[in-house]
Amino acid sequence: MKKFLIKYKIVLSAMVGVLVVGGVVWFFYSERLIDDDLAQESGGCSDTPKLEDGAVRMVTKVIDGDTVLIEGGYSVRLLWFDADERGKPCYGAAQERLEELVLGKEAVLEMGGDDLDQWCRYLRYVFVDDVNIGLKMVQEGLVVARASYEGSKYQSEIALAEGVAIENKVGCKWSGQGAESINRDGNYNWSKLTSELTGLKVIDACSSAQYYGQEVIVEGWVADGYRSQTNTVFLNFEDAYPEQCFVGVIFSSDLDEFVQNPEKYYSSQMVRIRGEVEEYGGKPEIILKSAEQIERGNGL
C-alpha cells in the first residue's frame, strides 16, 4: 500500500507539472492567436465591403494628412507616405493640402499589396485627374516617404521626389518648420545599443529578414505603434501595419519592464532593438522582454 501511494504521488506530481507548463504555453499562444484574429479582414473588418482594384469613389472628408473618407463613410489610408500626427509641426499643412487635392473629387483607388490595415482602412494609392496624390504630397515636402517593401509600386519616382524636396528644402518638412520632427540623414546618438558596446551587428529594419535566427541590433523608423485588445504592443518599422518590414513585440506580461505607453513613446522615432530575429506571419520580428533591448535615438 505504501509503495502504491508513493507511485501515485509521483504520477500525480508529473501530471500537475505537465498541466502547468501546458497552461503557460497556451497563454502565450492564445494571446498571439487573438492578435492575429484582430488583424484578419474576416474578423474585425468583416463589415468592411470589398473594394475592387481601381475603384472610383468620391472623397467626402479628409481626416488628416494621409487618411480620407470616401462615400459610404469608409476610411482610406494613402500608401507610400506618412504625414505628421496631430500636434506635430506639419500636421495642419499636410491636412489642408490634401483637402485641396482630393476633397469633393472622384478618386481612383489603386491597390498596392494588402487590402486593409488593422483599423479596417483601405490601403490604396490615390489618383485624382491622373495625378498620384502620394507623389504630389512628397514632391511638395509636406510628408515623409515610406517604402512598403523593396520594389513596391512607384518606389523609384517617390524616392527621387523626396530626395529633390530635401535637397531644395521644399515644404513644411524640409524648409525648417518641421525639420525637427524627423532626421533623414541618420545622424543619431546611441548610448547603449552599438556594435562597440555589444559586439553585435547593426542592420537596417528592412534587411532583417536576412538574419532569421541571429542576434543583431535592428535600426529603423517606427512608423506606427499599436496596442491590441490583449495589451500586446506592436512597433511597426518603416510603415504602418500591414506594410511594415519589421516588428518589435512586447507582450502584456512584460509591459512593466518598459516606459509607460511604449506604443506612443517610440512611435515616429528612430529606434534600435536588440534580440534574435524571428519569423512570424511572414514578417521578421524581435520579442522584447526588457527595456535594455530597445533604445530611442537622439538626433544630432
Tell me about this structure:
This protein folds into 2 domains: 55-181, OB fold (Dihydrolipoamide Acetyltransferase, E2P); 188-299, OB fold (Dihydrolipoamide Acetyltransferase, E2P) (Beta Barrel). It has 7 helices and 18 strands. By secondary structure, it is of the alpha+beta class. The strands form 4 sheets. Strands 10, 11, 12, 13, 14, 15, 16 and 17 form an 8-stranded mixed β-sheet that branches. It starts with a helix and ends with a strand.
List keywords for this structure.
2 domains, single chain, alpha+beta, 300 residues, globular, 18 strands, OB fold (Dihydrolipoamide Acetyltransferase, E2P)
Secondary-structure-based class equals alpha+beta
Report the biggest beta sheet as strand number plus sense, adding barrel if it closes: 8 strands, mixed
Instruction: Give a count of the beta strands, DSSP E runs of length 2 or more.
Output: 18
Number of helices: 7
What is Rg? 23 Å
In CATH terms, what is the architecture of the largest domain? Answer: Beta Barrel
For this structure, the CATH topology of the largest domain is: OB fold (Dihydrolipoamide Acetyltransferase, E2P)
Q: Regarding CATH, which class of the largest domain?
A: Mainly Beta
Summarize the amount of helix as a percent range.
25-40%
Strand content: 25-35%
Give the tally of structural domains: 2
Mean pLDDT: 83
Low-confidence stretches: 24-43, 179-185
Distance between the termini: 77 Å
Q: What global shape is seen?
A: globular
